[in-house]
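Look at one record.

>
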Amino acid sequence: MKAMVLAAGVGSRLDPLTSQLPKPLVPVANQPVMEHILKLLKSNGIEDVVSNLHYLPDKIRNHFGDGSKLGMNLDFRFEPELSGDAGGVRACREYFGNETFIVLMGDLLTDADLSRVIAEHKRKKAIATIGIKQVEDVSQFGVIVTDDNGFITGFQEKPAVEEALSNFASTGIYVLEPEVFDLMPKDGSYGFGRQLFPKLLEEKLPLLAVDLATYWSDVGTIHQYRMSNFHALDGELSVELPGEKTNIGYIAESSKVDSGVQVEGKLLLGKRSHIASGVKIKGRVIIGDNCRVERNAVLEDTIVWSNSVVEENASLKDCIVGSGCVVQNGTSHTQVTAVKWPATASR
């Protein structure tokens, strides 16, 4: 089976983080979110993947190459103009041939058993299957209504809690038969949620929902991005954390933690990074590659991207520090997300 990872979006809700980096490369637990997706596909026996690109495409191409480092075969298609999520898949129609294929949004995180979703799709002879997940706040999602056999009977777009007919949301994971292309217009912008799936219902074609029954999130907003990182560190999301597990956290190769560092929580430290004596780590802290945290700095529930420096006596709480930043000596920041310091961007 072949797969497609949608990676063309700008990711404006993650601004300022995506001002210099395309959303699929935003790191979660020190690995790009799209890398987590590709590893999940490979673990489910899917090695042939195409991805559409638009915003900062060369950065994605240069990072993944042909996929051989992951033991996969990657193909990229550039979209000069965005044509909607279903439109992007439509542009790759020839890639899939006449076989069933799977599509995943490029900003999601899950440890779902994709093989089970695909098997249900085939067993129930659906033309399309949507992976769904139970959510607490239905007002933030497109809600899916099903019958007793799991087939979809209707949709609600971000309903009020008291009006919701279901508490299941679409996860952006779709298993599709090639016949869906025959129901799409040949050109123009076209979407799954607002156009293709309602069209399938209108035509009374079998549209299935399968509960992932496992972890699922996305990195669509700053808050979701932070929490997804912390969920990975907490073990709520089953992903491989890079580094050796120690009594103070996961420490990657060629990194150093001096004696006298206090860790009151969980730490993930990238490659060739150094934490100096007197530093305090509180809550959940993720530090990327080639970073330096100098004496007596304090980091609490904070994410620091690669190639950054936190100078002596600086304090960071609930912050995200972009790549190549220097957090200056003695400064204090709370609930700030920025790619330039002194920080001016707050979320």
